[in-house]
Amino acid sequence: MSSHSNYNPTNPVEKWFDERLPLIRFSKEHLMDFPTPKNINYWWTFGAVLAIMLVMQIITGIVLAMNYVPNIEMAFDSVEHIRRNVNYGRIIQATHAVGASMFFFAVYIHMFRGLYYGSYKAPREILWILGVIIFLLMMATSFMGYVLPWGQMSYWGATVITNVFSAIPLVGTPILEFLRGGFVVDNPTLNRFFSLHYLLPFIIAAVVALHIWALHVPGNGNPTGVEVKSKADTVPFHPYYTMKDLFVIVVFFIPFAWFVFFAPDILGHADNYIRANPFITPAKIVPEWYLLPFYAMLRAVDFDLFFINAKLGGVIVMFGSILILMVLPWLDKSKTRSGNFRPMFKPFFWLFVLNFMMLMYLGAQAAEGIYVILSKVGTAYYFGYFLIILPILARIETPKPLPNSISQSILDKYEAKALKQAKIQGNGNSEIQGKGGK
Amino acid sequence: MRNIFSALALSVILAIPMPAMAAPSGVPAELQKWSFAGIFGTYDTNQLQRGFQVFQEVCSTCHGANLIAFRNLTEAGGPEFAESQIKQLASEYYIIDPELEEGERPAILADLWPSPYATERETREANNGALPPDFSVLAKARYIPRKFPLNFYDMARAYQEGGADYIYNLLVTYEDEPPYGVEIGDVQQYNAFLGAGTAMMSPLMDELVEYDDSTVPLTVEQYAKDVSAFMYWMADPHLVSRKTIGLNVLIFLSVFALLMYLVKRRIWAGVKH
């Protein structure tokens, strides 16, 4: 972590403090003076959105935990009690529930941005891997949070997802019973899920700290993928990016507030307003929208392969779909980072995005007919993209020439703009002249 | 600016909501105009009062509402009955209290709506083995499935009132005889909206409940609409105050966003980027 600080405390108290604990120096260096490429676009602002979302979820969650009762007889009513009787409880609860969805919107945009601009490439592999760990922790946290209201979908979601672990040979059943705290999903399950749901966000916060640390070693990437070469390529983080990020955060809060205040239930399932009932299985058990692509891949494997039965195969595919992201820096060996300069990469990337959305759609459909076939195709493309397409592209693709530096790319951009404007003006003039001639 | 719009567009596309429950397989639902739908929606107090009357006189003989307190009926944004009226009403109900010598006492405003039956067994015995669901959040536990892209349309207009539509359509589509070839149970009646038999016999008929307001028609459709609205209020009793705060929040955020945009533009004005 190189020093970018120009912090010179003049006040003797500040000086005394700085010599003992350079907290202010550290903050100034990393939150204010940190040199950040000039040219990063709006796709880069979602990191700040995510940081705010984590804070929002933790604060609303702590208040909810003050009123929630983790007991199967009372959990459902205690959530309703929060909505009906706790002061502003209905807004805090809705913010937390909708917040989970908004958190995942932001994380998907953040991840797809990383995939497109090659943010995972050297020297940012650790940064990327920490991000994948955060994503895994988020999925675990949101899943356990969804169980807490103890509605029908909570109960049956918990049953289906914990059951996934039983597919693992030898240790599967002990893991299953450990997760559930018994043979079936019951009060002990709810208790441990509540405990872990409270713990995991703080682990996420710790990994986020590492993620930002790992970011501040090489610094931000940028849309050209060319590393910072001189001071002319950067601006200090504050006020340039603090204010830009804040602008986006406020804009992001508009759809967020829309859901919280006007349609807090629209992103959830009506079934979760029915109390958990172990004797009645809902017609369709579906996870929240943000877990659907992975659910679709889990269900896509409905065939045995050698000694791997369908259930275990599905589990391998589902976990593999996330774990494969961890080795992505070593699968995509293309020297060019940014998708902007990779003509062959671009169509495959956008197809990957579409494919992900298709899987999301399929995850909510019944596992029958055309949906099963499409799920298999989608799963194949998901893995094919990482295991076949990216390694081959790295070998055969001729990337477009990169600009010499970030500043150069900016100059080029302005020049092109000026040229275009001049051309339009030129055309306009000749037209007027033409008319005058007649 | 273009980037942020595409970012927002992507985030909306990513939010494909997926209905989870099996759709009723019968006739398509007729969506009603609800006064509480949309971002400016508020409850119609008169409608809620009529709906309560239907609930009390018809539904509550079998269905409970154990999250509703008598005091809720007097609160702002709800049916807004006079407090004295509800105190009088509460005193006509009895709350089981084993601590007392008499074993029960008249209800007060703070009490929850008493269940019509003491136990589940008793409930089932009285209802041919069926279990009438509790009404407290029922309007949110039911919905009309909406296919893509209608689900996005609903998000864009903040329409999550499908539960009230479900209840209305259920109540008005009972038929005396099932269509040819459809089998239903012995103690069931055919419902065209469900496309199946249901253990709840048609509970409403014209002129069943006498409204104070003589201009309101005494029809099954009117009763169904009123009681559906009342049930939606039970499931979402603070909808009005929430939406009112929401409007203020939206106005605040829009102005704040505009100011932040200007701040950002001003700061970046001197930097080529």
Topology:
The complex is a heterodimer of chains A (438) and B (273).
Chain A: H1 12-20, H2 23-32, E1 35-37, H3 46-67, H4 75-84, H5 89-116, H6 125-147, H7 152-164, H8 172-180, H9 187-216, E2 234-236, H10 237-262, H11 292-300, H12 310-326, H13 328-331, H14 345-363, H15 370-396, H16 406-437
Antiparallel strand pairs in A: 1-2
Chain B: H1 2-13, H2 45-57, H3 83-90, E1 94-96, E2 104-106, H4 120-126, H5 138-141, H6 150-156, H7 162-172, E3 174-175, E4 189-191, E5 196-198, H8 220-235, H9 239-268
Helix pairs in contact in B: 2-8, 7-8
Global outline of chain A: globular
How far is it from the N-terminal to the C-terminal residue of chain B, by CA?
13 Å
Q: What's the helix count of chain B?
A: 9
Could you tell me which chain pair has the largest interface and how many residues each side has?
A-B, 64 and 60 residues
Radius of gyration of chain B: 23 Å
For the report, how would you describe the main beta sheet of chain B?
A: 3 strands, antiparallel
Kindly, what is the distance between the CA atoms of the first and last residues of chain A, rounded to a whole number of angstroms? Answer: 69 Å
What can you tell me about this protein's structure?
The complex is a heterodimer of chains A (438) and B (273). Chain A has 16 helices and 2 strands. Chain A has 438 residues and is mainly α. Chain A folds into 2 domains: 33 residues, no CATH class; 370 residues, Cytochrome Bc1 Complex, Chain C. Chain A has a two-stranded antiparallel ribbon. Chain A is globular, with a radius of gyration of 26 Å. The N and C termini of chain A lie far apart (69 Å). The C terminus of chain A is likely disordered. Chain B is mostly helical and 273 residues long. Among the domains of chain B are: 153 residues, Cytochrome Bc1 Complex, Chain D, domain 2, CATH 1.10.760.10; 36 residues. In chain B, the strands form 2 sheets. In chain B, strands 3-4-5 form a 3-stranded antiparallel beta sheet. In chain B, strands 1-2 form a two-stranded antiparallel ribbon. In chain B, helix 2 packs across helix 8. The longest helix of chain B has 30 residues. At the A-B interface, helix 4, helix 5, helix 10, helix 14 and helix 16 of A face helix 1, helix 5 and helix 9 of B.
